[in-house]
């Protein structure tokens, strides 16, 4: 935990509390010191005061979102209001807690943020501008339907495989709607267990459960006047489905532990990669909720269904990541593009984007050839470096002799070779990232926690 507060007494008390709960804490006196510490130390959650001299908590939140998008930020404030909460959630805060805080409440909030971070590490949203890239017919049709759907109030259900840009599509619906000035609130339903998901959606009253020291509005209430995006809605349990159905039908809710009915003006946009029709038949998803969500169904095409978009996407991501990493523009040669286009990209646009970001950071020059792309592909699990023909202007990769299996000379097993390759990949990534472990994890396409575990496993700590 990274604790950021200009009051040393608060940081000391909170640090002792979290240490007693088995959490490791680091303290920073202001936003600038916090950013420097994030560069040097592994941090899972940032807990920051809102009002601080120099860089305040909201500014720190924005900087953390840019440099460490997978690190949740919890804001502390002695001046809590619903408008401030809405502003914080719009800016990407994981949660907010009022001062003076209760011991159980702050521990409950931090554990919730940790759970959410673990769930979203493998579901990192696409970091692109709020416009789709690509001119294929399938993408043009999808954008046209999104534009039509945006103008109304009807609930939109976004369908498609993981990595196709459903969150990007949800934001496009919000931005193109009459309520674009209102909040756009996101909730990844698969990242939280039922008890936390219910409190996140509907909020709770003081004393509703252990740790509920104050009343707190839920995501539905925070999205009043705007849009609530429910990602992976197919993972909601039947018990929560019943309560969500009522909110969508009646536009009203009751906070946990409360009896007062709260009216809300919210537009719902949901997304899932699961076949909801099959879940309905199996009795795992309510049929009436499915029809409530499926008012305007929109399918986002997989990348393999629009291969003509790979080139503009690749060049777009190269430009974006070159600027982000402070590098001059990159040139992608024809044979380099051919290797990229030959890949199946089962993880869709997200996988392509992450691969190109690694390619930018690990590259020594500004010209990316087929050999450069193939070398990086060979380091990535789930991707294959194709044997390139001389017509592509690159050197064909050597084939393994059929008479002598690879590694047979030394009697090494496949598992030992895998471990050696894994260890070398981490060494290379750390070297390229200047020992910045957060960046190294992003280059390898894994979460920071997985990287730390692997480093310990291979004796690289």
From TrEMBL:
<dbReference type="Pfam" id="PF25601">
    <property type="entry name" value="AAA_lid_14"/>
</dbReference>
<dbReference type="InterPro" id="IPR058031">
    <property type="entry name" value="AAA_lid_NorR"/>
</dbReference>
<feature type="compositionally biased region" description="Polar residues">
    <location>
        <begin position="391"/>
        <end position="404"/>
    </location>
</feature>
<dbReference type="InterPro" id="IPR025944">
    <property type="entry name" value="Sigma_54_int_dom_CS"/>
</dbReference>
<dbReference type="InterPro" id="IPR011006">
    <property type="entry name" value="CheY-like_superfamily"/>
</dbReference>
<dbReference type="InterPro" id="IPR009057">
    <property type="entry name" value="Homeodomain-like_sf"/>
</dbReference>
<dbReference type="GO" id="GO:0043565">
    <property type="term" value="F:sequence-specific DNA binding"/>
</dbReference>
<dbReference type="InterPro" id="IPR003593">
    <property type="entry name" value="AAA+_ATPase"/>
</dbReference>
<feature type="domain" description="Sigma-54 factor interaction">
    <location>
        <begin position="132"/>
        <end position="361"/>
    </location>
</feature>
<keyword id="KW-0067">ATP-binding</keyword>
<dbReference type="Pfam" id="PF00072">
    <property type="entry name" value="Response_reg"/>
</dbReference>
<protein>
    <submittedName>
        <fullName>Sigma-54-dependent Fis family transcriptional regulator</fullName>
    </submittedName>
</protein>
<dbReference type="InterPro" id="IPR001789">
    <property type="entry name" value="Sig_transdc_resp-reg_receiver"/>
</dbReference>
<dbReference type="InterPro" id="IPR025943">
    <property type="entry name" value="Sigma_54_int_dom_ATP-bd_2"/>
</dbReference>
<dbReference type="InterPro" id="IPR002197">
    <property type="entry name" value="HTH_Fis"/>
</dbReference>
<dbReference type="InterPro" id="IPR002078">
    <property type="entry name" value="Sigma_54_int"/>
</dbReference>
<keyword id="KW-0547">Nucleotide-binding</keyword>
<dbReference type="InterPro" id="IPR027417">
    <property type="entry name" value="P-loop_NTPase"/>
</dbReference>
<feature type="domain" description="Response regulatory">
    <location>
        <begin position="1"/>
        <end position="114"/>
    </location>
</feature>
<feature type="region of interest" description="Disordered">
    <location>
        <begin position="382"/>
        <end position="422"/>
    </location>
</feature>
<keyword id="KW-0805">Transcription regulation</keyword>
<dbReference type="GO" id="GO:0005524">
    <property type="term" value="F:ATP binding"/>
</dbReference>
<dbReference type="GO" id="GO:0006355">
    <property type="term" value="P:regulation of DNA-templated transcription"/>
</dbReference>
<keyword id="KW-0804">Transcription</keyword>
<dbReference type="Pfam" id="PF02954">
    <property type="entry name" value="HTH_8"/>
</dbReference>
<keyword id="KW-0238">DNA-binding</keyword>
<keyword id="KW-0902">Two-component regulatory system</keyword>
<dbReference type="Pfam" id="PF00158">
    <property type="entry name" value="Sigma54_activat"/>
</dbReference>
<keyword id="KW-0597">Phosphoprotein</keyword>
<dbReference type="GO" id="GO:0000160">
    <property type="term" value="P:phosphorelay signal transduction system"/>
</dbReference>
<feature type="modified residue" description="4-aspartylphosphate">
    <location>
        <position position="49"/>
    </location>
</feature>
